[in-house]
C-alpha cells in the first residue's frame, strides 16, 4: 500500500540550490538495462540484464572477493574515475571496502582492486568524492570513515584521515551539483561540505538535515529529478526535496533495503523477506512493472548501472 505523508526537516542557513546537468542511461524498463545486486549466499556482485531470467548462466558481470573481510557484501555502486573510466565501489559487512577496476572481462576478483581499506564496524555503504577520496559508513561503530589521497588520480594513495560521528550510519551519497556529501543514520539525513584538498580533505556538517522516524538505511539519487534524494528507513521509502528539506513517504513497508527510480520514473526496490540464515535478504528484486527472481539468491541491495546523476 502506498501513502503520501510529509515530514519536516530542519534547514540551517540558505536553501541548498540544485543546479547541474542530469544524465542517465536506458530506462530500467528497457531490454538493454542492467542491474547489479549484492548476492550474499555466494558472496558476489552479480549483474543481470533486465530482459533475461536472473540465473547463473545469464550473469553479465561478476565480482568474487572470497570471504574474510569481504564477507556479506553490503553495497555496490558505479562511478567514473579519472584515468580509469567507470569503476565499481563495494563495501562488505565483514569490514572491508574498495574500488574495483572494470576490465571488460565477465568475471572479476581481488586482483581487480584499485584500492581497499579495512574500516571495520560493519560497513554498509561507500561513496567516491571526486578529487577528495572515498567515504565509508561503519554502521555498528556509528560513524563515517574518510579516506583521502596524496595524489587524487591514484587510488592506491588513499589513507584514512578522519572519523565523523553519525549514529547508525548506513548510507552516503555525493551530490555533484550541490557539492555536498549526504549521510544517513538513525532518524536523520545530514549534509556535509568537503573542505581541503588531497590528504587534507575533511567533512564538515553544513547544518542541513532531515529527520524521519526509523533507522535510516539506503540513500540514492532520483535519476529523473534534480534536487531529489531517495531514502529508506525501518518503516518506508521516502523522497527528499533538498531545497525544502522535507521527506515524503512514497512506499510503506518494513525493511526496504534499497530503493531507486530511473530517469523515466520507474522504481526498483528490494525488501527483506526473512530468508534464513540472512533474514535481511531477498531472492526477488521488485520493479513497478514486474518482479525479477534470482533462484536461491540472498540479495541485500540492487543498483542501476548508472554512474551519472544529479
List keywords for this structure.
mainly beta, Methylamine Dehydrogenase, Chain H, five-stranded antiparallel β-sheet, 0% helix, globular, disordered N terminus, signal, DUF6528, TAT_signal
Textual characterization of the structure:
This protein is an all-beta fold and 310 residues long. It has a single domain (6-304), classed as YVTN repeat-like/Quinoprotein amine dehydrogenase (Methylamine Dehydrogenase, Chain H, 7 Propeller). Helix content is 0%, strand content 50%. It contains no helices and 25 strands. The protein has strands spanning 6-8, 34-39, 44-49, 61-64, 73-81, 85-92, 97-101, 107-109, 113-117, 123-129, 133-138, 143-148, 159-165, 171-175, 180-195, 202-215, 219-221, 228-232, 236-241, 246-252, 256-261, 267-271, 284-287, 291-293, 299-304. The strands form six sheets. It has a five-stranded antiparallel β-sheet with strand order 1-20-19-18-17, with no helix packed on it. The chain has a five-stranded mixed β-sheet with strand order 8-4-3-2-25, with no helix packed on it. Strands 5-6-7-9 form a four-stranded antiparallel β-sheet, with no helix packed on it. Strand 23 and strand 24 (291-293) form a beta hairpin. Residues 1-26 have low confidence and may be disordered.
Amino acid at each position: 500500500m502506498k501513502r503520501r505523508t510529509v515530514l519536516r526537516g530542519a534547514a540551517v542557513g540558505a536553501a541548498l540550490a540544485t543546479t547541474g546537468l542530469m544524465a542517465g542511461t536506458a530506462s530500467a524498463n528497457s531490454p538493454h538495462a542492467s542491474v547489479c545486486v549484492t548476492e550474499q549466499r555466494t558472496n558476489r556482485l552479480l549483474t543481470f540484464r533486465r530482459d533475461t531470467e536472473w540465473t547463473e548462466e545469464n550473469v553479465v558481470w561478476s565480482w568474487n572477493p572470497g570471504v574474510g573481510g569481504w564477507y556479506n557484501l553490503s553495497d555496490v555502486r558505479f562511478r567514473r574515475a579519472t584515468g580509469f573510466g567507470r569503476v565499481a565501489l563495494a563495501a562488505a559487512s565483514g569490514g572491508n571496502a574498495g574500488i574495483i577496476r572494470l576490465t571488460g572481462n565477465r568475471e572479476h576478483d581481488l586482483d581487480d582492486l584499485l584500492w581497499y581499506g579495512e574500516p571495520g564496524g560493519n560497513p554498509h555503504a561507500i561513496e567516491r568524492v571526486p578529487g577528495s577520496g572515498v567515504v565509508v559508513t561503519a554502521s555498528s561503530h556509528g560513524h563515517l570513515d574518510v579516506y583521502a589521497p596524496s595524489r587524487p588520480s591514484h587510488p592506491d594513495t588513499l589513507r584514512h584521515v578522519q572519523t565523523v560521528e553519525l549514529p547508525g550510519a548506513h548510507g552516503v551519497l555525493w551530490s555533484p551539483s550541490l557539492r555536498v556529501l549526504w549521510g544517513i543514520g538513525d532518524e536523520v539525513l545530514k549534509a556535509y561540505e568537503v573542505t581541503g584538498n588531497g590528504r587534507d580533505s575533511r567533512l564538515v556538517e553544513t547544518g542541513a538535515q532531515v529527520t524521519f522516524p526509523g533507522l535510516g538505511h539506503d540513500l540514492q539519487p532520483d535519476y529523473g529529478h534534480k534536487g531529489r534524494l531517495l531514502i529508506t528507513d525501518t518503516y518506508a521509502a521516502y523522497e527528499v526535496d533538498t531545497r525544502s528539506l522535507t521527506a515524503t513517504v512514497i512506499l510503506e513497508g518494513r525493511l526496504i533495503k534499497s530503493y531507486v527510480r530511473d530517469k523515466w520514473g520507474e522504481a526498483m526496490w528490494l525488501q527483506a523477506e526473512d530468508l534464513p540464515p540472512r533474514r535481511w535478504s531477498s531472492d526477488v528484486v521488485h520493479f513497478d512493472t514486474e518482479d525479477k527472481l534470482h533462484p536461491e539468491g540472498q540479495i541485500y541491495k540492487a543498483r542501476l548501472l548508472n554512474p551519472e546523476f544529479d
